[in-house]
Amino acid sequence: MAAPKVAVVGAGVIGLSTALCIAETCPSCSVTVLSDQFSPNTTSDVAAGMLIPHTYPGTPIHVQKQWFKETFTYLFAISNSAEASEAGIHLISGWQVFKNTPKEELPFWSDVVLGFRPMSEAELQKFPQYRFGRAFTTLKCDCPPYLLWLEKRLKAIGVQMYTRKVADLWELHSEYNIVVNCAGIGAHQLVGDEKLFPIRGQVLKVHAPWVKNFIRDGDGSTYIYPGIDRVTLGGTREKDSWSVSPDPGTTKDIFDRCCSLEPSLRGAQDIKVKVGLRPSRWCVRLQREVLSRGGVKLLVVHNYGHGSGGFSMHRGTAKEAAHLVEECIAALQGSLSRAKL
């Protein structure tokens, strides 16, 4: 058959990395990315891009660990290459601190990050309100550099990218053989997924180059994540809030909370406020579906609903989505050979 035409809907970290994995896994495919927003206007551009997993209650832990491990391994290799600076990927060490000792002794990802260990009494003196902590080194993707690096990689291997708002996946059936839905929070409307809901996140991006280590309150409600140029201060987790307008009261609250963890942030300059809607559900939707109208079929692969864990899991879920696309291609070729018979 002619080269299968694949459309990826969505150009955040999930859409771009999925398009890249499909192009790498199925080189005979023609891959196109369609999105109404590209960087710097995606939810991924607001994210801190820290590789600290968020747990999905409806996804088996061994699957989440595999996704995280594949993502960490992939980004670790980039961080060790000459492209690290352009891709915005770097190693970062820091502390996760707890007011009470957590029930789980070791999170599932403790042997994937580097140098995971309990904090010493001397380290804990930095955080007088906290009784327990973990120290480790992980990776951080700076946005938009990482998204722009992914776009550059895609263009280099012939992937087309178009600004287009897709209102219904079916509208693509006459142009593409397979459609991959990486629409993030847009999937709520695009495919009517009632299980998908926004968790609003407001963050501050500040200039504070003296802050070198990440600091995360145990539950992740307050965090300080230094990037290459700016430090991300967070945050909020407001379930079912669709507002993308910054709230001044929230800005002050975030700043005060972060300053209580790291008092030197009182000297931070050039504070910019960003808001993003995390596409959240009980579990990531990563599956095949066949849409059918009037005897015509459209093969669809869904890969969305990563919530707070998009960066931590993106390469692992992109690889799995690419394998599902391979299965779709095999099904297309099988139905074509049957039709010839």
How would you summarize what this structure contains?
The protein is α/β, with parallel strands linked by helices and 341 residues long. The protein has helices spanning 13-25, 61-79, 84-87, 121-124, 145-156, 187-190, 248-261, 310-340; strands spanning 5-9, 30-35, 89-98, 114-118, 132-141, 160-163, 178-181, 197-207, 214-217, 223-226, 231-234, 238-239, 269-293, 296-306. The longest helix has 31 residues, at 310-340.
Task: Label this structure with key terms.
FAD-dep_OxRdtase, peroxisome, Rossmann fold, alpha/beta, elongated, D-amino_acid_oxidase_CS, 14 strands, flavoprotein, 341 residues, EC 1.4.3.1, 8 helices
What does this structure look like?
The chain has 341 residues and is of the alpha/beta class. The chain has a single domain, classed as 3-Layer(aba) Sandwich (Rossmann fold). Helices cover 30% and strands 31% of the residues. The chain is built from 8 helices and 14 strands. It has helices spanning 13-25, 61-79, 84-87, 121-124, 145-156, 187-190, 248-261, 310-340; strands at 5-9, 30-35, 89-98, 114-118, 132-141, 160-163, 178-181, 197-207, 214-217, 223-226, 231-234, 238-239, 269-293, 296-306. Strands 1, 2, 3, 4, 5, 6, 7, 8, 9, 10, 11, 12, 13 and 14 form a 14-stranded mixed beta sheet that branches. Strand 13 (269-293) and strand 14 (296-306) form a beta hairpin. Helix 1 (13-25) packs parallel to helix 5 and helix 1 packs across helix 8 (310-340). The protein is elongated, with a radius of gyration of 21 Å. It starts with a strand and ends with a helix. This is D-aspartate oxidase. Residues 1-19 form the signal peptide. It is an enzyme of class 1 (oxidoreductase).
